[in-house]
Write a structure and sequence with these properties.
5-stranded antiparallel β-sheet; 338 residues; 17% strand; 45% helix
């Protein structure tokens, strides 16, 4: 276990290296930080920290944090930096104007990339974790209907249904009421069992055929959108950190193009808690020089999807974690109110 003083030295090294982009020496540490000890003592502490937590990149006297050093910094030393009132107001104003789910996700990506100056990744709410908010049925013609499925996350799916026989307005209103009474507020996975006996509850034989057709379309809608979707933005931000990546940023860019890789990274986030993956903790070879900060978002206490940022390991962890958490909270509020 490291002493508190050596932890403070590590904290100072991380903060200075993130801020200056230059390896940090003992003299600079004692000049910039109130460590209460001499440069010689700091040098001794740095020698101990070199057993895994900091490294000497070349022959200069300076040291830089290793992945293990960043991990200890995040776990023991880094609080989540709260956003300022203007920053919170800017987030609220920027996200509040969204008109639909695609707009919410698009605005969130742009906002995260701007706030953190990293690559932002936002996963669309998963249908498998969603519940039904409302099912609308509209008559387009005597034997043609439109089904509109609205989820608790603001997702809207529309389908046109050709019925086996004309379906009157009274029957349509009856089906709409019965259907919503059974499925509103229920998980998608529960819907098939909840509606399986609905056709038999209609007295008219010709109506049962249309009800069966409507239910088949509804169930297809619930399962056919299983493919996870995400949006990415701010990739150009990586060019500001070219010297942070060994040789080239090409492996990072190639990894970011693989949606499966990004979904796996976000999927490792806890349901609603913050997850920080640093350097070689990222299993994909192309991302071993990056850190991923992610968190779940959603309405209520349960996450329906994840969002986060990808950047070099030399990042402002407290500020990035604060921005990611704040944006996730606002997106959750928007989904709950939409």
């Amino acid at each position: 276990m490291l002493s508190e003083r050596r932890l403070e030295v590590l904290r100072a090294i991380v903060q200075d290296y993130v801020g200056t982009e230059e390896p940090v020496g003992s003299k600079a540490l004692t000049e910039r930080h109130r460590l209460g000890v001499s440069p010689a003592t700091v040098r001794n502490d740095m020698a101990v920290l070199e057993e895994g937590y900091i490294a000497q990149p070349h022959t200069s006297a300076g040291r830089i944090p290793t992945d293990k050093g960043y991990r200890l910094f995040v776990d023991r030393l880094a609080g989540v930096k709260p956003l300022s009132t203007p920053e919170r107001r800017a987030i609220h104003n920027f996200l509040d104007g969204a008109v639909d789910l695609d707009d919410v996700v698009g605005r969130t990506v742009r906002l995260l990339a701007q706030l953190t100056r990293q690559v932002a990744v936002v996963q669309y709410p998963s249908l498998t974790r969603s519940t039904v908010r409302h099912v609308e049925l509209l008559s387009l013609a005597p034997a043609r209907l439109m089904l509109v499925l609205i989820t608790d996350t603001g997702r809207v799916e529309q389908r046109v249904i050709d019925c086996p026989a004309p379906f009157g307005e009274n029957s349509l209103a009856d089906l709409r009421a019965r259907l919503n009474s059974r499925v509103v507020g229920r998980r998608f996975a529960d819907v098939p069992q909840l509606v399986q006996d609905l056709p038999d509850s209609f007295e008219e034989i010709e109506d049962r055929g249309t009800v069966t057709t409507v239910l088949a379309t509804l169930l297809e809608t619930l399962v056919e959108e299983q493919e996870e979707r995400l949006m990415i933005g701010g990739t150009a931000n990586l060019t500001r950190f070219g010297h942070d990546f060994p040789l080239t940023i090409r492996p990072v860019l190639e990894a970011l193009e693989e949606q499966v890789v990004l979904l796996k990274l976000l999927g490792e986030a806890k349901e609603s808690g913050m997850t920080v993956r640093i350097g070689h903790e990222n299993a994909h070879e192309g991302l071993t020089s990056t850190s991923v900060v992610s968190v779940g978002y959603g309405s209520g206490g349960e996450a329906v999807a994840k969002l986060g940022v990808v950047g070099p390991t030399r990042m402002d962890y407290p500020g990035t974690m604060g921005a990611v958490r704040a944006v996730a909270r606002y997106v959750g509020q928007i989904l709950a109110e939409s």
